[in-house]
Amino acid sequence: MLKIVKILTIVIGVYCIAGLVPVARSIVVPSFKAVKGDYTYQWHRVANEAEQKSLKVKYQGSDYCKDCHPDNYQKVKASKHAMVQCENCHGPAVEHPESPQKLVIDQRRELCLRCHSNLPYRPKQYAGLSTGPIPMKMQDPEQHNPGIECTACHDVHSAGFK
Amino acid sequence: MNNQTRREFIKLGAVTLAGGAISMRLGVFDFLKPEAVAEITTGPAKNWGFVVDATKCVGCGMCVKACKLENGVPFDSPVSRTWVERYINTKDGEVIIDSPKLARDGYITNEPLGKQIPEENIGKAFFVPKLCNHCEHPSCVKGCPVGATYKTADGVVLVDKEWCIGCGYCINNCPYGARFFHPETQIIDKCTFCYHRITKGMQSACVEACAFGARKIGDLNDPNSEVHKIVNTQRVAVLKPDTHNKPKVFYIGLDMMVI
């Protein structure tokens, strides 16, 4: 008889502690929700969606540059480099001109060669511009003036010679 | 069947295995049936999707650079949320696949895997940009033991940085290799379609950085969006449809050798 009471006490005790778990969890664990009742794919901490949305945008896009640098903006947009974003070469604007105050311009040959190195894998005709297909100007970096920066002769903004 | 010799039995087994292996290889990608397209591109809610036009990619890797800088992925670590693969099929039938530094610096030399390949020996060759497929049925989410990764109501698969314990089950569960350990935060990181940008009306950093229009993002359920039009009117394919994950990155210009 005593033994049964003992076992019962232990069982009830375990149940009482276990019953506290959901209560404790609701305090410690932030609010989780299965959106649309989808426990398989949408069970998550709801506040995280807002956190994800509030992350900082670093690449601002060419329109961000337009107002302060209208000359270069218009020059590029009229050139065959029209679809190349300012930030591809100038780096992310973030909060320029506050921070960073000056953007670092990548003028290495390697940057130009990303598109213009003569590789047999690239599509040779490029049809992305409204003016129709333009041939991709490709160069063999070992033949074409090795060791000199492309910008020594070429004007990137007008996609032509200086 | 009873008087089959052991030799015959083993032979049959080997043939079956080889056949299976070949059909698996052939099943690497499928063109989508109209019903499948209709199912994934209709619905009242927003459903973010992506189109990659592999025929336009020149392998400049500007997308990878922009993604890394935009999303704080360590620039010199061999991990990235998006990457570009180079596929070369030589005339001898050899397939070479590489992605040096995950194409962070683009492809500027013709030395895949350190090999010089003469131009006349190249049968076909092209680039394939890759990223998280933001599947309709993400197997990575199913594997998470703590509910740290989830699909949003508008169809983007995200990782809760506060809640992730970095166990890595989702890395194993992703058939596309799209997830990785972030070397600084020590938890899982992955492509978010730039959720902080697309929810503000901007485009993903990789889409914006692409000067060739090889990448497009938009609402699959919006009949006016470019991705909806492409998926419904052009010949698109997805990677590894046999996983039944229902990926939402659609490709133009895939080939049998793409894995």
Order of helices and strands of chain B: HEHEHEEEHEEHEEHHEHEE
Rounded to an integer in angstroms, the radius of gyration calculated over CA atoms of chain A is 31 Å
Number of strands of chain A: 6
Query: Helical percent range of chain A?
Result: 25-40%
Query: Structural class, judged by helices and strands of chain A?
Result: mainly alpha
What number is the mean pLDDT of chain B? 90
CA distance, first residue to last residue of chain A:
103 Å
What does the largest sheet of chain B look like?
A: 3 strands, mixed
Strand-residue proportion of chain B: 15-25%
Can you summarize the main beta sheet of chain A? Answer: 2 strands, antiparallel
Task: Please report the distance between the alpha carbons of the first and last residues of chain B.
Answer: 39 Å
Structural class of chain B: alpha+beta
Task: Give the largest chain-chain interface (CB within 8 Å).
Answer: A-B, 44 and 53 residues
Number of helices of chain B: 8
Model regions low in confidence, pLDDT < 50 over at least 5 residues of chain A: none
Roughly how many Å is the radius of gyration of chain B? 20 Å
Share of β-strand residues of chain A: 5-15%
Low-pLDDT regions of chain B: none
Describe the structure in your own words:
The complex is a heterodimer of chains A (162) and B (259). Chain A has 162 residues and is mainly alpha-helical. Chain A has 2 domains: 2-53, no CATH class; 63-161, no CATH class. Chain A contains 6 helices and 6 strands; from the N terminus they run αββαααααββββ. In chain A, strands 1-2 form a two-stranded antiparallel ribbon. A two-stranded antiparallel ribbon of chain A has the order 3-4. In chain A, strands 5-6 form a two-stranded antiparallel sheet. The termini of chain A are far apart. Among the domains of chain B are: 59-131, no CATH class; 139-181, Alpha-Beta Plaits (2-Layer Sandwich), CATH 3.30.70. Chain B has 8 helices and 12 strands. Chain B has a 3-stranded mixed beta sheet with strand order 10-2-12. Chain B has a 3-stranded antiparallel beta sheet with strand order 4-3-5, with no helix packed on it. Chain B starts with 5 loop residues before the first helix and ends in a 7-residue tail after the last strand. The interface between A and B is large, with 44 and 53 residues.
